[in-house]
Amino acid sequence: MLWIALHCPTLSLDWIERRFPAALIPAMAVTVRKGNQVYIQQANKPAQQQGVTAHQSLASALSLFPDLVVVEHDPNEEMKALQEAAYAALRFTPNIVMQGSGLIAEVSASLKLFGGLKKLCQLLNRAVAAQGLQLCAGVAPTAGGAWLLARSASPQTVINGAGAKFRSMLDSLPVSLLESAQPHLEVIHGIGCKTLAELQQLPRGGIARRFGPKLPIELDRAYGDSPDPQKWLEVPEYFQQKMRLMAQVESVELLLVPVQRMIEQMCGWLAARHAAVSAFSFVLHHEYSLRQPHKSTPINIRLSEQSSDSRHLMILLRERLERTKIIVPVWELELIADEITTGADSNLELFPTAQSEATSLNRFIEKLTSRLGSQAITGLKVVSDHRPECSQRFEPLGISGLRETHREIIPTEWARPAWLADPPLELKLQRHQPVYGSPLKLIEGPERIEAGWWDDALIARNYFIAENELGQLLWIYCEHTPAEKDKKGKESKSWYLQGLFG
């Protein structure tokens, strides 16, 4: 087995900062209460530049910078931020474990699919960091070992403990990284144990009696000397995610980052369920205002075909957002997966299918529809009518048109041209022979089309396939009526060009 651990050293700050647009993040700090005193647990960079530091009393911090934004430590919000990050990580492995201030992922089955350990580690880090979390990463053959390596890493670095050097890397780690050792650190340091290697040299029974049984168990699990069962993250049956913003936003541009995060979460959830979305809703929630009596602005998106591609879904949603006028500020976002279908992964196809070949066209049409509106995109619809000029018509190409896989077409043994003339073009005659560039030679026909009695637009025509000297094939006809006679008494028919063959 192979594990990648992602530790979030500034999680208590990250869950707040990620809800601010980047340009609006203030100087702020997270506080924790110890007895009757309130202390600074963590401060962000703008606050640190004003002299605010960790372990400082709140009174001292406010005396240095009175405009400091103070937020109380909230473990529930931290766990929610981790869970949202875990959803994004599910795109790369279904085996995710929530671990305190981070995540642990078992990735041995995902290495080939994502191009090896280095590439997978980069993708996993990028997906979780895009959720607004600062990360340290560790790789090891055990979950506990990977977690200890991640906690010892500096921000935005990866410690790779996979291989023969794993145990020696663990030996050099400080004892203070062990969670079960926290209440006994002073005693452990007092007996001369500062690293895991030194702790390993002590009698195991004595460690258990003096510091409790959890300490040797945690140590053995980290080294892989005893089993370490894990509880995988379970995803809910339905996806409905909300994100409350810490600042009221009136610009669509400032919403794109949190929107992208929520789309990534939904796609990770879909990957865990081996499913795809065919319709989803994005809702902008507003505070009540006289300018906007409605409390929310829904954006409903229906796809022509199921998809779990975060890039494609984000493009569609961004196009719709840019056409949405935000009259009053937005204070909360909500994303709902309305219709879910079990879909096959097109990347697993050995040979392209008709559906996979049509995907790019359908997605292009979806993008235009999102950008210009459904009424701006029109397409040809086949109509069950023998008359060529009535056999098709233009109409808005909505999602139903894209999804239409079966059209009722009147069967015929005769070939039909790709382009029809509207209206049919009357051809000149040369010695009673139709001309189009040169005299036409009739090579097939006649085909009698007689229809339209039901709507008082009766036609009765004889159709022919003709060819000119350039090799062009034309679809021409003459009316099935008694022919007129010219001055010499010869029959003279009028010929019309109905269409051209490709």
Could you describe the 3D structure shown?
Helices cover 29% and strands 29% of the residues. Strand 19 (459-467) and strand 20 (473-479) form a beta hairpin. The chain has 3 domains: 1-10 and 75-234, 2-Layer Sandwich (Alpha-Beta Plaits); 240-372, Dna Ligase, domain 1 (2-Layer Sandwich); 419-500, no CATH class. The mean pLDDT is 86. Helix 6 packs across helix 11 (214-223). With 502 residues, the protein is α+β, with helices and mostly antiparallel strands. The protein has 15 helices and 23 strands. 29% of the residues are buried. The strands form 7 sheets. A 5-stranded mixed sheet has the order 5-6-1-7-8. Strands 15-23-20-19-18 form a 5-stranded antiparallel sheet, with no helix packed on it. A 4-stranded antiparallel sheet has the order 9-12-10-11.
Distance between the termini: 59 Å
CATH class of the largest domain: Alpha Beta
CATH homologous superfamily title of the largest domain: Reverse transcriptase/Diguanylate cyclase domain
Shape assignment: elongated
Number of separate domains: 3
**Low-pLDDT stretches:** none
**How much helicity do the residues have?**
25-40%
State the major sheet. 5 strands, mixed
Number of strands: 23
- Overall structural class, as computed from helix and strand content, comes to alpha+beta
CATH architecture of the largest domain: 2-Layer Sandwich
Mean pLDDT: 86
Rounded to an integer in angstroms, the radius of gyration calculated over CA atoms is: 35 Å
Widest sheet, order of strands: 5-6-1-7-8
